[in-house]
Amino acid sequence: MRLLVIGGSGLVGSHLLAEALRRGHHAFGTFRERAVPGLEPLDAARLADFEALLDRHRPDRVIHAAGWTWVDGCEDDPARAMEENCHQPVRLAEICQRRGLRFAYISTSYIFDGSAGPYDESAVPAPINAYARSKWEAEQRLVAATDGSVLLPRVICVYGVEARRKNFAYQVGDALRVGKILTLPSDQRGNPTWAGDIARTTVDLLERAERGAFHLGGADPDCDRIAWAEHLVRSFKQVGVEAATGFTIVPKSTAILAQKALRPLHAGMVSRRLARPCFGPADDAAICREIAGTTR
User: Which residue in 254, 136, 274, 139 sits closest to 193, CA to CA?
Assistant: First the structure.
């Protein structure tokens, strides 16, 4: 397999690249703003640059693991959200379709409204914020643009080592180390999911040329943010990161937090399409050890 990972500098994209290379595939990736050694620059709005990239590397699979994921930012600028999360990947998919290349797109549990989770692949999406609308619109357009051949891994609550140190595990680790008050929503639930598991399963799906939506979620679709944070704290302490004076976790309801974009409260996912519907528990102590090494 020859795989191009658009967004190879991100959390999911970097793990996808590492997994594909580990299996001996020819895999290469792109970044948009922050240069990463070994990756190539790509602005997905510049279609000629994308075509030149395809000409140079001749992939047979392309996976879009990029986009604008700042949920509250998307609420302020829904046009940008739709452009980066929907229109751009659809244009790239159309180019791939003309060239006979398989296309995949990392989607999200946010396409569900969170009123009746956990959701399997047969559930009907009902997005409640601008970010989610852009992702659900992309899914539908990509199905049309690829004659139904697109692969749509949907992910949720992803954590793991990443260059930009943005995901929830870093937030908890940084707060623990510097003694920060961590205010978290007590009523938002979903599967904590290690990016390495997502990468492993997605590469499996790419190798088999699967199509359609697959729900890639960790073992506990009903985990709330407080329980997840407390588990991460224990894992960090297990590898020698002690709580600085002042660290505490403060639970508050989503209504009190008044986040700009609506959040699906119970957006956990399960799979009816995977042979192993849920991932097993990740080695969070090992993951937190790596994360702790990047926070100092």
Answer: 274
Q: How far is CA 262 from CA 74, 110, 289, in A?
A: 11, 10, 33
The Cα 230–Cα 223 span in angstroms is 11
Q: How far is CA 145 from CA 79, 102, 242, in A?
A: 21, 11, 51
Percent of the chain surpassing pLDDT 70: 98
Cα–Cα distance for residue pair 74/113, rounded to 1 Å: 17
Residues 106 and 195: their CA atoms lie apart, in Å, by 12
pLDDT category at 243 given cuts 50, 70, 90 is: very high
Largest CA distance in the chain: 59
The three-state (H, E, C) secondary structure of 29-59, written as one string:
EEECCCCCCCCEECCCCCHHHHHHHHHHHCC
Task: Name, in order, each residue with C-beta under 8 angstroms of 186's C-beta and a sequence gap of 6 or more.
Answer: 224, 225, 226, 251, 252, 253
Closest CA to 156 of 221, 205, 203: 221
Cα–Cα distance measured from residue 173 to residue 177, given in angstroms and rounded to the nearest whole number: 6
- Amino acid identity of residue 252, one-letter, is K
Q: CA–CA separation, 202 vs 208, rounded Å? A: 10
Q: Which residue has the tokens 């004659």?
A: 147
What pLDDT score was predicted for residue 296? 46
- Let me know how long the chain is: 296
Averaged pLDDT for residues 169-176: 97
Round to whole Å and give the CA distance between 221 and 189: 7
The Cα-based distances of 221 to 99, 114, 120, 204, 233 in angstroms read: 39, 12, 11, 22, 20
For 273, the token pair is 């399409």
What pLDDT sits at residue 275?
78
